[in-house]
Design brief:
Helix 6 runs parallel beside helix 15 and helix 8 packs across helix 9. With 422 residues, the chain is of the alpha+beta class. The protein has a five-stranded mixed β-sheet. A three-stranded antiparallel β-sheet has the order 4-12-9. The chain is built from 15 helices and twelve strands.
Length: 422
Amino acid sequence: MSDGSIDLNDARAKAYATPLEQFNLIDPVLFKNDAHWPYFERLRKEDPVHYTAESEEGPYWNVTKYNDIMAVDTNHEVFSSEPAITVFDPTDDFQLPMFIAMDPPKHDVQRKTVSPIVSPANLHMLEPLIRERACKILDGLPIGEEFDWVDRVSIELTTQMLATLFDFPWEDRRKLTFWSDVATAGPDTGILGTTDPDEHEERRKATLFECVDYFLRLWNERVDQPPKGDLISMLAHGEATKNMDRMEYLGNLILLIVGGNDTTRNTISGSVYALNKNPDQYAKLKANPALIPSMVSETIRWQTPLAYMRRTATRDVELGGKTIKKGDKVLMWYVSGNRDDEVIENPNDYIIDREQPRRHLSFGFGIHRCVGNRLAELQLKIIWEEILKRFPTIEVQAEPERVLSSFVKGYQELRVIIPTRN
Ligand code: HEM
């Protein structure tokens, strides 16, 4: 495996030479180049609750230490999830209400409506299906030939899972992947054939309207049928959700599509990458498959698939000796808190049998803690059980291509070869 195109020493020198007032960590290029680490390291040491006064999205606070992030995440009265959980404010003509960006009481009732899909009983029921689909994907992979793991495995597995949760027409399932990507991608990605911001926004809206129209057809079919266990039926029959308008339905769909898609996808890719970067850990896993669950949690910490969540202060409040003003944007940088050495020992190391592997911030905390966390862990566990049964090794061929986003932290492409089967 090549040692990568990013020179960490250069990134570190640059981060330490840049005046703190010029730090703008929402710059997606930092993440695309994997160059964000030293900036966060410096903030944790020198200014853990840091104010960025100027950016294209206006001023915002950076909360970078584990315990401060916990304090913000568990205090929803002072740190509201409205109007948005990314640094971007919704535009007036395109509001997408979704319960991740709502406060109680509305948040709580909507969350309760979809929670049964990921109850322990439902997960138990889903397990054989996830396994069957994982086996099929793995059995179809080429041997001794280079391919893109992201596309062939990570995207395919999570898309199939999502199609299952929605009971979505199977042949159209890649539409879910596309909608998920469009929902989070900025104009720079060119995903909609243009990099012009206005043109991108127009095409983005049109695509998301196509998405909701497709789902409205499914809603209309299911609302007239008796309630079933899929998410659309649950939303169509749920007391708290059956009267949602079109945009609220769209918002909650996007939440479930993005929530269940990019994050798990990037953890699957991240696990292959991390194990290749740390061959001693890969050897440990092969020797002892009972370590799969803790490897999964360690990967979720190490990868941190969502780099931050945003809150908005509802009143003036002190944090880390700073005064955050009512209305200020506050970014909880999970990606930094997960590398805080005051809470996690040797946080930059990938250690699959560390003590307390679930002690990380990647799923958030408090009333918005990830609904799908056990489902994500289950998918990862199953795929690795089946990988270890089949393949002695998966060899990463080059540094991955990373996603251009400071919110979704993940991989565009990961070239691998599987040399042989067991
Ligand atoms: C490794 C995979 C995953 C990661 C890292 C992840 C991460 C997160 C994070 C950070 C939050 C916000 C927590 C907060 O604000 O405190 C969240 C919320 C949420 N996640 Fe996940 N997630 C993952 C998988 C999933 C899956 C598979 C689903 C779908 C079934 C899902 C559905 C949701 C939903 C619906 C919310 C909103 C919860 C609320 O507002 O009450 N996530 N997730």
